[in-house]
Amino acid sequence: MRDPFGKLLLFGATGDLAQRMLLPSLYGLHADALLSPGLTITGTARSSLSDAEYRDFAAKALATHLPEDRKDEARIASFLDRLQYQPLDASKTDGFGALAEKLGDISDGLAIFLSTAPSLFEPTIQGLASAGLAGDNVRIGLEKPLGFDLASSCEINDAVAAVFPENRTFRIDHYLGKETVQNILALRFGNSLFEPVWNATGIDHVQITVSETVGLEGRAGYYDDVGALRDMVQNHILQLLALIAMEPPARFDGTSIRDEKVKVLRSLRPIVGKDAANLTVTGQYTGGASSGKIVAGYAEELEKPSRTETFVAIKAHVDNWRWQGIPFYLRTGKRMTERRSEIVVQFKPVPHSIFAERGGVLQSNTLIIRIQPEEYVRLLVMAKEPGLDREGVRLREVPLNLSLDHEFASTRRRIAYERLLLDLLEGDPTLFVRRDEVEAQWHWIDAIRAGWDAADVKPKPYAAGTWGPSAAAGLTERDGVTWNE
């Protein structure tokens, strides 16, 4: 194990992310003795709290969000002893001196987790530098949103780069901390079975779905300025696509893996002009039934009309030798039928069926990589049904199933942020996003939005609790493809 840094500074320490994810994740690392004994955790936010009041706040967050089997009074008490708190208005440089004084000696290293509004990135970075909190032994982790388009993203990255070089900058996409996402690399590059057919010769198409059942959930102010394309496709979905489509890296390290991912992102065929209307579908949920409850539509929740998309489906292509001509169907949305994140790899049919004359019907093999809520890898293959075959050969699609929950039942499932926070402390960049990746993603996304504006694309209504507007089905069905539902 690498030696973790001596201090951790959490911005947004009283926010929803800190309560649901960061504090439980840090407690999990502490409970498993993965944090160095002397590591202190300093929280900062606008709220005026004392150390004792913040520890009470953290204790309530752990009581609410920790699984029952992880609650241990002695370990929670010793974790809370690591915590301290310093109020800060990040928009004003003069408060950073007090923050530095609170942190004390950082000669053993400081890791910073920065989660803030895009408008506060620049003053926060400047404040850290002015207070001596940006030296060679300081790393910074940046939580999204890192801008709302390429220009604003570059502005934020320029502000960060003026103080923190790229090798000390860790951009966070929490999907990359999920075990099943990391298993994509193991599946592809740890098994000789898949790589020979993982290309345009063997694969018919790929589907990536990230669906949610929730609506605005208190994010109205943020979400209406962003929409589904920026909120989910620009980061999570394009990162999944890059992992599926990347060439084999030379080794398992941050440079090699991220080099291959950025090649994929730069190879995405631009969706420009009228193609933005033809190759994408946007939607906005109306009232309906979701998770057994009657729910309001987006405009009703927002309390005003809006043209923001809560659903988007895209037919994308990666223009390189491996993937030439193979469509990648991407979709994400709120208030959909079920919560699901998955990748479906549809292989091409066998070139000739020897069973056709005897009534056997073949289905093409399908690989399903489910990321949430369950975690599994399932390969659908053809098998013969038992019998004497007097009336023909009966074939049936059966699953070869690798359930991570079952196969690794004795191993505790970790929150994605546990891995990412530990990697930040230890300085491992492999599961973080590099600047050139972010900019390649925004370049592709901005072209789509420009096409929508030029064509005056309006989101189509879809009832809450469904799989989105009917046009999304048409996007695939005109190619003879059906969404995996």
UniProtKB/TrEMBL annotation:
GO terms for molecular function: glucose-6-phosphate dehydrogenase activity; NADP binding. NADP(+) binds at R46, K144. Its EC number is 1.1.1.49. One of its GO terms (biological process) is glucose metabolic process. The keyword Mitochondrion does not apply. It comes from the Bacteria. InterPro entries: G6P_DH, G6P_DH_AS, G6P_DH_C, G6P_DH_NAD-bd, NAD(P)-bd_dom_sf. The gene is zwf. One of its GO terms (cellular component) is cytosol. This is Glucose-6-phosphate 1-dehydrogenase. Substrate binds at H174, K178, E212, D231, K334. HAMAP family: G6PD. Residues 185-484 form the Glucose-6-phosphate dehydrogenase C-terminal domain. The active site is at H236. It is an enzyme of class 1 (oxidoreductase). It holds the Pfam family G6PD_N. Keywords: Carbohydrate metabolism, Glucose metabolism, NADP, Oxidoreductase. It comes from Sphingomonas turrisvirgatae. Catalyzes the oxidation of glucose 6-phosphate to 6-phosphogluconolactone. It catalyses: D-glucose 6-phosphate + NADP(+) = 6-phospho-D-glucono-1,5-lactone + NADPH + H(+). Belongs to the glucose-6-phosphate dehydrogenase family. Residues 10-183 form the Glucose-6-phosphate dehydrogenase NAD-binding domain.
